[in-house]
Please model this.
Amino acid sequence: MRLGLFGGSFDPVHYGHLLLAECCREQCQLDRVLFVPAAIPPHKREQAGATPESRLEMLKLATYGHEAFDVSGVEINRGGVSYTVDTLRHFRAAEPEAELFLLLGADMLHDLPHWREAEEVCRLAVIVAVQRAGVPELDYAGLSGVAEPQRIEEFRARRVSMPEIGLCSREIRRRVGEGRSVRYWMPRAIEKYIESNGLYRVAEEDAAG
Model:
């Protein structure tokens, strides 16, 4: 089985996340894509937003009905700061026969060499970086210190392209806080969940997206 793992804060999930996952599923011929919301992302420890439980529930609503999409609460259940290497080890033990694919945006590919145990991350999973239309070519040179040349070429061969879509969780939170419309930025079920639960009512001027 080819299992794609897509981590992030998803605060909230929007159509950009879903399109990235679908492009990866199709182009890498993945059997399943698991969305894995972080309990506390290492780079967003001070962020104020939805609770982990709300982010998990919104992902379940967003992926409902897609036969290849599912949601895992492994990082939220584990608690604390969420490190990708721990999550990959979990799925390697839970799915020993599966080939793991780690889905990343271009910005995360650039940061990957600075992650905890980056060499192990590159060993445990095939890195699938997404090339959005209208942005510079993906740069894999930074991985030279954490992966062998042959492995990097394998990652390069798995890069995925997707249409340019300028959606951002930070902007969604800001718009909700300002009482502005977020219609068609996300599935309607997520918009209604945010409204019903009073999420993001205060504009977050300094929150990271």
